[in-house]
Amino acid sequence: MTKAKYQEIEEILRKQITDGHYQTGDLIPKEIELAAKYQVSRPTISHAVQDLVNQGYLERRKHVGTIVKQTKIAQEFIHVIQSYDREMEQKGLTAPTQVLYFKKAEPTEEVRQALELKDDDEVYKLTRLRLADGSPNVVVTTYLPVKHLADLEQVDFAKQSLYQELDKRNLPVVHVKRKLEVKVANEMTADLLDITEKDPVFYFHTYGYTKNEVPIEYSIATYRGDENYFLIDLKK
Question: What residues does the HTH gntR-type domain cover (predicted)?
Answer without folding.
Answer: 3-71
